[in-house]
Every structure is written in structure tokens, then in C-alpha cells.
Amino acid sequence: MALIFQANNPKKPMASLTAGFHRHNNHRSHSSSASKIIIFFCLSAFLGLAIIANLFRASLSTHYLSIATNWVDTNAPVLILKLAATPHNSNNKGKDGKIAQRMGPQRFLSATFADLPAPEWQWEQMPSAPVPRLDGYSIQIKNTFYVFAGYAHLDHVHSHIDVFDFSINKWVDQIKMPNEMAHSHLGIASDGRYIYIVSGQYGTQCSGPTTASFSLDTATKKWKPLPPLPAPRYAPATQLWKGRLHVMGGSKENRHTPGRDHWSLAVKDGETLEQQWRDEVPIPRGGPHRACIAVNDRLFVIGGQEGDFMAKPGSPIFKCSRRHEVVYGDVYMLDDEMKWKILPPMPKPDSHIECAWVIVNNSIIITGGTTEKHPVTKRMMLVGEVFQFHLDTMKWSVIGKLPYRIKTTLTGFWDGWLYFTSGQRDRGPDNPQPKKVVGETWRTKLHLS
Ligand SMILES: *[C@@H]1O[C@H](CO)[C@@H](O)[C@H](O)[C@H]1NC(C)=O
């Protein structure tokens, strides 16, 4: 322990050790030079080992800190991070291009993490939500926007709904959630009056999941329990489709393993007449954080990821630790045939978009998200583009830019305006890594073609 501490400054212990050696040497003038050399070599070897051990320990803790910064607002300095954030020349190239240039030949790097060219949009800031939110959920019913749950930070989760009124641009109400309801990674859908909430993560950090499911009557603000999901899921794709609540994909009990199961439950007016969930055709690819959207007779599942952070084994607070994850831009569709069809993928892989979408004029609009990690720094990269999926042609386009890159945004559309609130934003225009959890609300006039 002491040696490791000393080795923090390799010059000092070396000096004091040699000084000690000399003193020792002076008092014992009869020692043979051979034993002096042996002692010297032993000390040097020991010191060398200590330095190596310390470097190893330092690199581990740097890595550990960097994991934390992917999730929450922290000012902890991180070595690689600094390198990536330092603009190194003044040309107009995207900063990711600069990193790639600096760190190695660009042609060996996948470019899916980089910003895509997109028109700049004018955004207008609206009143912020009462609390900041990461991994919140939302449902829009006419001019009313219900914003659910989420993390304020890793050690605090919300257990209420904030309500925004698009017609007056004000946060107007707060509704308490049932104590047994999940706080993040839930499944959510609505029929225009009742909101259905399914499973999800119960608690802070990377806590365990619950199967508990509920409905909320937004007219009376009354909650009712629904039959629990057959097995818990984190952030499953969830949608109300042809009178049944469909729940599929998500992560399994350990928060990381993708589930492919697909269940449905007949629901009407916030209740079910069925005793249990029904098995449906499994989704081709499992995993959490996808957009799930029903349009007419078709059900779309868009983007998402396989793998996620999971609780550190044995951690009493379920401390989040990073695991391998792959983000994708796949689009799957179910229609009357009840067979999954594969449609053109998103312009880039995109995850954390469960509530980041709206349907406008026969198009799906998606805002922000997370994409592939940076191939060199391995940091999580946020998305700042707005995507349009044309439901008539099944084609994607990149139509605009958000005020900053952000994930887990909650998106709405009212009276020609595209709104988003909350999420975790980037470190700045030159740094697409996640940092601050925000409650900011923005809107822009939407003009689709
Ligand atoms: C949607 O279509 C209508 C009718 O063509 C048009 O007036 C409106 O501007 C469109 N909305 C957007 C957001 O582009």
C-alpha cells in the first residue's frame, strides 16, 4: 500500500530509497559490494513492480470513471476524453473526423458514430420540466403531454408524472405513480384516454425489474392494476394495436440479455378481460430502447440495441457497470399476415428512442438517441439529427438538427410545432458524449415534404 502510494511519483521514492541505501551503506562499511548490488537490484525490481501495479490500477480507475461519465453529469477528468475533446485543427471538418485523423487512418473506422449532414433548424425554448429526466417516458393525448418517471441522476428516480399543456405551453399538473410501478425502462402505450404501463426497472442505478403493470385513466387520474407480464423486461417495445397491448423484445432479468418473446393482452378502457398474456410471434431481434409505433394496420419496431449496462455482481446498490452493447437501425414490421417483415434501416443505428417519435402527415419523425460507440475511444455517442420515415415510400431521410445531441428525448407534435423535452444531452457541439441530464423543453415549426 505504502509502496503503491510512493510510486505515484516514481522520482521521489527512488531518491529517498537511494538516500536510505547510502546511509545504510555508510554505517556498514564492511558490507561486500556484491551484496550491495543484490540489494540494489532487489529494491529496483520491487519498485518497478510497484510502478507497474500502480499504472495498472490507475488505468482501471480511469476506465471506471469514464464509465460513470457516460451516464451522469460528472466533471471527473478523463485522459482519453481530453484527447478526444481537444480541437486540434481549425478546419471545418466534423470533430469525429479530427479524432479519426489523429488516432489512425480514417478508412479503417466505421463512420456510423458520426453526425450526418442535416439542415439547421430554428428552435425556441419553452418552460423546462419541473425535474430533469433521463430514461423518462411520455404519452401525448391531444394537447396534453404526460411525462413519466425517469432518473434525475443514477441515484435518484422519479415516481410521478409531469403534465405539459401544448396549447398554453405550461407545465400544469403532477400525478403520483403507484408505489409498485417501475421508474424507468418501462413499456408504455395509450388509446387516447387510458395509458398502459408495463414492467420495467424498479429503482435506482441498475436495479432489478418488476412485472407489475398498470393502466391510468387520464380523465379521472385513477390507476388500475393489469395482469403482470409473464416475465420482467427492461424497455420492451410496447404498443396498442388492434385492441391488444403488444409487448416484445427488451432486456431480460439481468438487464443485458436481449429477449425475443412477444406477448399481447386484450385491453379496453384500462382493463382486461383476459387472465393472462398471450404468446405472439417472437420478434427477429430482441433488446431494449426501441421505438414501437402502430399506424393503421401495421406495427413498426425501429432501432434499439442488444445489451445494456448491468448491476455489478454483489453490489448492494446495484451499481451500474458497462457491458458490451450493439446499437442498430433495423426496422421490423408486422401486418395482417402476422409475420415480421424487414424494412429499410434508419440512416444510422439509433437507440434510446422509445418516446422520441411522433406521427405527422403519414411520416414517422424521430428525434435524437444514441448511436454506435466511437470506434477508437469506445465512448457512447449521442445523436442530434431528426429523421423522417415516409410511410408511403418506406424511405428514410435526415430532415433537421436538434439544438444539441440528446438521448431519451420525449417528443410531441401540436399545431404545426415539433416539441421535445428531457433526456441526457451532449458535452457540447464538439463532443457527442453524454453529459448533463436535462428537463429543457424546445419546439420548432415543422415543415415536411
Ligand atoms: C401536413 O399536410 C398538410 C396538408 O398537405 C399541410 O398543410 C401541412 O403543412 C403538413 N404538415 C407539416 C408539418 O408539414
From TrEMBL:
Which residues are listed as membrane-spanning? 37-56
**Keyword Transmembrane helix on entry:** yes
Q: List the Gene3D superfamilies hit by this protein, alphabetically.
A: Kelch-type beta propeller
Look up the domain of life of the source: Eukaryota
InterPro entries the record matches: Kelch-typ_b-propeller, Kelch_repeat-containing
Keywords, in A-Z order? Membrane, Transmembrane, Transmembrane helix
Designated name of the protein: Kelch repeat-containing protein
Its gene name is: LOC100777575
